[in-house]
């Protein structure tokens, strides 16, 4: 049963007036948060704690509506359950979203208020960074609760989780190359990256070192300019539409927000592999069949982008970077196993990944 929780003590007691659809995925708990003094409006969604406390980042984004924010939290938290299960972590899935433009409304007071909502859950939800939030933000959030990861090394944390997120995506891309072309390298391949922010720009570096040709785009001109300044050999195109139509593209890497693979984008996609860091890349479940029908290999997003959550989970036990990198390197093997399961069962890779994750969660519930 889904529990829509009121505000905890220490806030103004309000909740967001928004629509929650119970059919959105069997979540255990959804907390709608509002603190008028700081201007905070947020949603914390806990999908599952079958494997342990729900773990997932905090997204700070200017949503078009409160309903859109709730639905994003529901989708993202469900994805975290599956991601954590396949990453071999003893954590369930959760996610939080803060509503608003972080460049305009993010303040210390707001982050402290958000931390109080996390504290009210008593450890059922462990938070970290996501789009729009950074290590410095988590240091502030941690001042009002003890269930915050992704903090700075100076405050006992692991630092930026984007480092291992990018590394894990690169391992998933290598596995995709192995499955499709018989060689685990991107050398000589053309890779298009949509979104060169925290994760995307690090992925560029891995690919260039591996000998790939890289094409990029981003809605932020400064993000593109930074990559081009550091790596002049990288080509930039105007937008995602131009990127996915790029002639000779071998791999498409969505590394921004979700929904990149849709009824509009898949028919014109020139790449033979899709492997990127963005969450919830499929606009709807039927899109993966469209990819399969076109002979495009899809590396499930929540499998390949698990490096970051591996890093922040380790922080709870005393962070060791080398240990985390070794775990993240296993994304290569996990991705290959999913491709093999998909082939054996005659199903798309995302369905194979779901089956493996659901199997682990079901076994945990029975034990």
TrEMBL record:
Pathway: Amino-acid degradation; L-valine degradation. Signal peptide: none annotated. Residues 159-366 form the Glutamate/phenylalanine/leucine/valine/L-tryptophan dehydrogenase C-terminal domain. It catalyses: L-valine + NAD(+) + H2O = 3-methyl-2-oxobutanoate + NH4(+) + NADH + H(+). PROSITE patterns: GLFV_DEHYDROGENASE. Its EC number is 1.4.1.23. It is found in: Cytoplasm. The keyword Lipoprotein does not apply. CDD domains: NAD_bind_Leu_Phe_Val_DH. Pfam families: ELFV_dehydrog, ELFV_dehydrog_N. Keywords: Branched-chain amino acid catabolism, NAD, Oxidoreductase. SMART domains: ELFV_dehydrog. Homodimer. This is Valine dehydrogenase. It comes from Streptomyces nigrescens.
């Amino acid at each position: 049963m889904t529990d829509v929780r009121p505000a905890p003590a220490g806030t103004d007691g309000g909740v967001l007036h928004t629509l929650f659809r119970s059919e959105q995925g069997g979540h255990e708990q959804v907390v709608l948060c509002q603190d008028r003094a700081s201007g905070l409006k947020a949603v914390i969604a806990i999908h599952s704690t079958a494997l342990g406390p729900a773990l997932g980042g905090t997204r700070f984004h200017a949503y078009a509506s409160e309903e859109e924010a709730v639905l994003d939290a529901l989708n993202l938290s469900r994805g975290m359950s599956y991601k954590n299960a396949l990453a071999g972590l003893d954590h369930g899935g959760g996610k939080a979203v803060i509503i608003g433009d972080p460049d305009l409304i993010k303040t210390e007071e707001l982050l402290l208020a958000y931390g109080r909502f996390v504290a009210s859950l008593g450890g059922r939800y462990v938070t970290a960074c996501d789009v729009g939030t950074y290590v410095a933000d988590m240091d502030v959030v941690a001042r009002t609760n003890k269930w915050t990861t992704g903090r700075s090394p100076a405050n006992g944390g692991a630092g930026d989780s984007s480092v291992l997120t990018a590394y894990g995506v690169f391992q998933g891309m290598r596995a995709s190359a192995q499955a499709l072309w018989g060689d685990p390298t991107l050398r000589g391949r053309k890779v298009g990256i949509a979104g060169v922010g925290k994760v995307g720009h690090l992925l560029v570096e891995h690919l260039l070192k591996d000998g790939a040709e890289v094409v990029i785009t981003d809605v932020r001109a400064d993000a593109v300019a930074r990559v081009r300044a550091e790596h002049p050999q990288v080509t930039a195109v105007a937008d995602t539409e131009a990127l996915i139509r790029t002639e000779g593209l071998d791999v498409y890497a969505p590394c921004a927000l979700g929904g990149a693979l849709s009824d509009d984008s898949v028919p014109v996609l020139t790449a033979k592999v899709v492997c990127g860091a963005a969450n919830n890349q499929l606009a709807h479940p039927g899109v993966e069949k469209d990819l399969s029908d076109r002979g495009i290999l899809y590396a499930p997003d929540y499998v390949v982008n698990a490096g970051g959550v591996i890093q922040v989970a380790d922080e709870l036990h005393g962070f060791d970077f080398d240990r985390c990198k070794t775990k993240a390197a296993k994304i290569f093997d996990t991705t290959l196993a999913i491709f093999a399961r998909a082939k054996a069962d005659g199903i798309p890779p995302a369905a194979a990944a779901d089956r493996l994750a659901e199997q682990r969660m079901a076994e945990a519930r029975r034990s």
